[in-house]
Amino acid sequence: MIKHRNQAGFTLIEALIAMVVLAAGLAAIANLFVVAGSTTSVANKSSAATAQATEAMERLKAIPFLQLAAGGSVFPPPAAPPSCAAVCNDGVALNNCVRPGNFAMCKSVTAGAGVGVNGVGQVRTLWSVVTAETRNGAAGAAPSAYYITVQSDVIGPFGGNQFAAGGRSQALFSTLRVCTTAGCPGL
Question: What is the pTM of this model?
Fold first, then answer.
Protein backbone atom coordinates (compact mmCIF):
# COMPACT_ATOMS: atom_id res chain seq x y z
CA MET A 1 0.00 0.00 0.00
CA ILE A 2 1.37 3.36 -1.05
CA LYS A 3 0.93 6.33 1.22
CA HIS A 4 0.35 9.70 -0.42
CA ARG A 5 1.82 12.71 1.25
CA ASN A 6 -0.24 15.91 1.36
CA GLN A 7 1.27 18.38 -1.00
CA ALA A 8 1.48 21.84 0.61
CA GLY A 9 1.98 25.11 -1.36
CA PHE A 10 0.38 27.25 -4.06
CA THR A 11 -0.35 26.46 -7.63
CA LEU A 12 0.82 28.79 -10.36
CA ILE A 13 -2.77 30.00 -10.96
CA GLU A 14 -3.21 30.93 -7.29
CA ALA A 15 0.05 32.91 -7.33
CA LEU A 16 -1.01 34.82 -10.47
CA ILE A 17 -4.41 35.67 -8.97
CA ALA A 18 -2.71 36.94 -5.80
CA MET A 19 -0.39 39.18 -7.86
CA VAL A 20 -3.32 40.64 -9.82
CA VAL A 21 -5.19 41.43 -6.59
CA LEU A 22 -2.04 43.00 -5.11
CA ALA A 23 -1.43 45.11 -8.24
CA ALA A 24 -5.03 46.39 -8.20
CA GLY A 25 -4.70 47.34 -4.53
CA LEU A 26 -1.40 49.16 -5.11
CA ALA A 27 -2.88 51.06 -8.08
CA ALA A 28 -5.79 52.23 -5.90
CA ILE A 29 -3.42 53.39 -3.17
CA ALA A 30 -1.24 55.25 -5.70
CA ASN A 31 -4.35 57.05 -7.00
CA LEU A 32 -5.23 57.98 -3.43
CA PHE A 33 -1.85 59.71 -3.03
CA VAL A 34 -2.37 61.68 -6.26
CA VAL A 35 -5.83 62.83 -5.16
CA ALA A 36 -4.57 63.74 -1.68
CA GLY A 37 -1.73 65.79 -3.17
CA SER A 38 -3.98 67.81 -5.47
CA THR A 39 -6.54 68.33 -2.69
CA THR A 40 -3.80 69.65 -0.40
CA SER A 41 -2.67 72.04 -3.12
CA VAL A 42 -6.21 73.35 -3.62
CA ALA A 43 -6.63 73.77 0.15
CA ASN A 44 -3.39 75.79 0.39
CA LYS A 45 -4.48 78.03 -2.47
CA SER A 46 -7.97 78.47 -0.97
CA SER A 47 -6.41 79.46 2.36
CA ALA A 48 -4.18 82.01 0.62
CA ALA A 49 -7.16 83.49 -1.28
CA THR A 50 -9.18 83.69 1.94
CA ALA A 51 -6.31 85.37 3.80
CA GLN A 52 -5.86 87.99 1.07
CA ALA A 53 -9.60 88.71 0.84
CA THR A 54 -9.81 89.02 4.62
CA GLU A 55 -6.84 91.41 4.68
CA ALA A 56 -8.36 93.59 1.96
CA MET A 57 -11.77 93.66 3.69
CA GLU A 58 -10.23 94.63 7.03
CA ARG A 59 -8.20 97.41 5.40
CA LEU A 60 -11.33 98.70 3.63
CA LYS A 61 -13.14 98.77 6.97
CA ALA A 62 -10.26 100.78 8.45
CA ILE A 63 -10.56 103.57 5.86
CA PRO A 64 -12.60 106.45 7.34
CA PHE A 65 -16.11 106.41 5.87
CA LEU A 66 -15.93 109.88 4.34
CA GLN A 67 -12.72 108.94 2.48
CA LEU A 68 -14.18 105.85 0.76
CA ALA A 69 -14.60 106.19 -3.00
CA ALA A 70 -17.19 104.28 -5.01
CA GLY A 71 -15.98 102.20 -7.94
CA GLY A 72 -14.28 98.97 -8.90
CA SER A 73 -15.60 95.57 -9.88
CA VAL A 74 -15.01 92.04 -8.62
CA PHE A 75 -15.51 90.65 -12.13
CA PRO A 76 -12.50 91.12 -14.42
CA PRO A 77 -13.29 91.79 -18.07
CA PRO A 78 -13.47 88.60 -20.20
CA ALA A 79 -10.52 89.75 -22.30
CA ALA A 80 -8.29 90.19 -19.23
CA PRO A 81 -5.26 87.90 -19.27
CA PRO A 82 -4.95 85.44 -16.39
CA SER A 83 -1.86 87.12 -15.03
CA CYS A 84 -0.98 89.36 -12.17
CA ALA A 85 1.58 92.12 -11.81
CA ALA A 86 3.03 92.87 -8.40
CA VAL A 87 1.63 96.41 -8.36
CA CYS A 88 -1.65 98.04 -7.46
CA ASN A 89 -4.04 98.73 -10.32
CA ASP A 90 -3.09 102.40 -10.21
CA GLY A 91 0.59 101.62 -10.90
CA VAL A 92 1.85 102.41 -7.40
CA ALA A 93 4.33 99.94 -5.92
CA LEU A 94 2.77 97.24 -3.79
CA ASN A 95 2.80 98.33 -0.15
CA ASN A 96 -0.82 98.98 0.70
CA CYS A 97 -3.04 98.85 -2.36
CA VAL A 98 -6.19 99.05 -0.25
CA ARG A 99 -6.74 102.80 -0.28
CA PRO A 100 -9.39 105.18 -1.60
CA GLY A 101 -9.59 105.17 -5.39
CA ASN A 102 -7.79 101.85 -5.89
CA PHE A 103 -9.74 98.65 -6.49
CA ALA A 104 -7.27 95.83 -7.15
CA MET A 105 -4.05 94.31 -5.97
CA CYS A 106 -1.94 91.29 -6.68
CA LYS A 107 0.40 89.57 -4.26
CA SER A 108 2.79 86.69 -4.59
CA VAL A 109 2.14 84.29 -1.72
CA THR A 110 5.07 82.06 -0.83
CA ALA A 111 5.11 78.85 1.12
CA GLY A 112 6.70 78.54 4.54
CA ALA A 113 10.32 77.51 5.02
CA GLY A 114 11.02 74.07 3.62
CA VAL A 115 7.53 73.69 2.16
CA GLY A 116 8.26 74.43 -1.46
CA VAL A 117 10.15 76.69 -3.79
CA ASN A 118 7.23 78.05 -5.80
CA GLY A 119 4.86 78.71 -2.92
CA VAL A 120 1.15 79.17 -3.47
CA GLY A 121 1.43 81.60 -6.38
CA GLN A 122 -0.12 84.89 -7.39
CA VAL A 123 -3.30 85.95 -5.59
CA ARG A 124 -5.38 88.59 -7.38
CA THR A 125 -7.76 90.58 -5.20
CA LEU A 126 -10.47 92.82 -6.64
CA TRP A 127 -13.03 94.86 -4.74
CA SER A 128 -15.96 97.12 -5.41
CA VAL A 129 -17.44 99.89 -3.34
CA VAL A 130 -21.03 100.64 -4.39
CA THR A 131 -23.26 103.38 -3.05
CA ALA A 132 -26.04 101.63 -1.17
CA GLU A 133 -27.96 104.65 0.13
CA THR A 134 -27.94 108.43 -0.09
CA ARG A 135 -29.57 110.34 2.78
CA ASN A 136 -32.64 112.36 1.86
CA GLY A 137 -32.36 111.06 -1.74
CA ALA A 138 -30.88 114.37 -2.84
CA ALA A 139 -29.04 114.41 -6.15
CA GLY A 140 -25.32 114.91 -5.63
CA ALA A 141 -25.61 114.17 -1.91
CA ALA A 142 -22.81 112.20 -0.30
CA PRO A 143 -23.59 108.52 0.29
CA SER A 144 -24.50 107.35 3.76
CA ALA A 145 -23.97 103.63 3.10
CA TYR A 146 -21.67 101.55 0.91
CA TYR A 147 -21.91 97.92 -0.14
CA ILE A 148 -18.37 96.51 -0.26
CA THR A 149 -17.48 93.26 -2.02
CA VAL A 150 -13.99 91.69 -2.04
CA GLN A 151 -12.96 88.73 -4.19
CA SER A 152 -9.58 86.97 -4.22
CA ASP A 153 -8.53 84.19 -6.53
CA VAL A 154 -5.30 82.32 -7.20
CA ILE A 155 -3.87 82.65 -10.70
CA GLY A 156 -2.67 79.38 -12.23
CA PRO A 157 -3.24 75.63 -11.92
CA PHE A 158 -5.98 74.70 -9.45
CA GLY A 159 -6.67 78.41 -9.13
CA GLY A 160 -10.03 80.06 -8.85
CA ASN A 161 -9.99 82.48 -11.74
CA GLN A 162 -12.45 82.20 -14.59
CA PHE A 163 -9.66 81.32 -17.03
CA ALA A 164 -8.52 78.12 -15.27
CA ALA A 165 -10.51 75.01 -16.02
CA GLY A 166 -12.18 73.87 -12.82
CA GLY A 167 -10.89 76.81 -10.78
CA ARG A 168 -11.63 76.20 -7.10
CA SER A 169 -9.44 78.53 -5.03
CA GLN A 170 -11.53 81.63 -4.54
CA ALA A 171 -12.83 83.74 -1.66
CA LEU A 172 -15.69 86.24 -1.82
CA PHE A 173 -16.75 88.50 1.06
CA SER A 174 -19.21 91.37 1.27
CA THR A 175 -20.35 93.83 3.90
CA LEU A 176 -22.52 96.91 4.27
CA ARG A 177 -20.75 99.95 5.65
CA VAL A 178 -22.96 102.68 7.13
CA CYS A 179 -21.80 106.09 8.30
CA THR A 180 -22.82 106.54 11.93
CA THR A 181 -20.40 109.19 13.18
CA ALA A 182 -20.49 112.97 13.33
CA GLY A 183 -19.91 114.56 9.95
CA CYS A 184 -21.87 111.95 8.04
CA PRO A 185 -24.13 113.17 5.27
CA GLY A 186 -27.59 114.02 6.60
CA LEU A 187 -26.66 113.70 10.29
Answer: 0.70
